[in-house]
Design a protein that fits this description.
The protein is an alpha+beta fold. The protein folds into three domains: 138 residues, Nucleotidyltransferase, domain 5; 82 residues, SH3 type barrels; 94 residues. The chain has a five-stranded antiparallel β-sheet with strand order 8-7-6-5-9. The longest helix has 27 residues.
Length: 359
């Protein structure tokens, strides 16, 4: 979580990352004390959303002792503190943009928020005369932007000469993750997960970091659509199971073949006029029987079943041809593998096994 303090006069903000909500008072005291000394003005009014850590305990005692008017908004009336609420939304949107552009995971969300705050203080705002920035109001000088770098890029920080080893490297790879107010340099994150601050860094702004992070982002549904499904694991069958499966598949094939012939001859009362078409149930059962044979004998299923629902002749021809192929090869482990030559092979082994491999 993060805690923001916004100066209503200059629109200068300060953001602190908190592990516990009780740490908000220490952050508030440190920031307001520094602002008071820098500007020469005292905090006269304070507006908050009524969180318990801000209206109870040591925080409330401090505000009362200093004579500060504490304006607490009505619960769920966010518009009463609209400037601060909108400021939080701006920081969150900027942080999400930085993460999306850099490709870094959510583990760096806090660093992105701090960087968004640092940049916001150095950008013009509609609450000040253009092109005045909040930094200029507080510090009295225009901000220096020459040190800004692409957030999340690859960088190489120097190792202090005192830590050099004979034949060892003089720099280490890291990720640029932000800045710090009042310090000259950059905040970095090395490949081992350690943060540090350095002023001697070589930036490679055209390359994003290749950090191997523990949290893996979920692929988008569009990316998953291009990934072929993993093959279903197969269990080896014993001779009894193989024989029973083979018998059931042949009987199912013959039964559906008879139903299709009867439907075409007009014996089926549900079929009226013209060339009868196979029903959805017939297609489904036929496919199930074909899949059963495929799992047993590695036989490719008919690709014409789904493409020719209304063409009974082609469907029956395919079934009869398949049945003749089964009858001609009693040993299911040696069935010839069929291919749809109108489609490209899925891999090299399939390409070499096709009958048009030498074409």
């Amino acid at each position: 979580m993060f805690f923001i303090i916004l100066d209503d006069h200059s629109n200068f903000g300060h953001t602190v990352l908190l592990n516990w909500k009780n740490d908000a008072f220490e952050a508030y005291l440190a920031v307001t004390t520094r602002w008071e000394r820098k500007s020469g003005n005292l905090v006269m009014k304070l507006r908050s959303d009524g969180a318990k850590e801000l209206v109870q305990g040591i925080f409330s005692e401090h505000v009362t002792a200093k004579g500060i008017e504490h304006q607490v908004t009505v619960p769920y009336a966010h518009s009463q503190n609209g400037k601060a609420e909108r400021y939080v939304r701006t920081l969150e949107d900027t942080a999400q943009m930085l993460l999306a552009d850099s490709g870094l995971p959510l583990e760096f969300y806090g660093d992105a928020v701090l960087t968004a705050q640092y940049l916001r203080n150095r950008l013009p705002t509609s609450t000040l005369p253009s092109p005045t920035t909040p930094f200029e109001v507080i510090e009295g000088v225009k901000p220096d932007l020459s040190h800004l770098r692409v957030w999340g890029c690859q960088c190489f920080a120097i190792i202090p000469p005192e830590k050099w080893t004979k034949g060892g490297p003089h720099r280490f790879e890291a990720i640029f993750v932000g800045y710090e107010e009042g310090r000259v340099g950059w905040r970095i994150h090395d490949m081992n997960g350690k943060y540090s601050f350095s002023r001697d860094i070589i930036f490679n702004e055209d390359v994003r970091s290749n950090l191997k992070c523990s949290c893996v982002s979920q692929p988008s549904p569009l990316a998953l659509a291009d990934v072929p499904p993993e093959p279903r694991p197969r269990r080896l069958l014993n001779p009894t199971e193989r024989g029973q499966l083979w018998t059931d598949a042949i009987h199912a094939r013959n039964a559906h073949l008879q139903q299709l012939r009867a439907a075409r001859a007009g014996d089926n009362p549900d079929v009226s006029g013209g060339a009868p078409a196979a029903s959805g149930g017939d297609i489904l059962h036929l496919q199930q029987s074909l899949i059963a044979v495929k799992d047993f004998a590695s036989l490719a299923t008919l690709t014409t079943v789904e493409d020719h629902f209304d063409d009974m002749s082609l469907l029956e021809f395919s079934v009869i041809s398949e049945h003749m192929s089964l009858a001609a090869h009693p040993n299911p482990l040696r069935l010839p593998k069929t291919f749809d030559l109108s489609k490209a092979p899925l891999n090299f082994c399939e390409a070499r096994a096709r009958p048009d491999a030498d074409v």
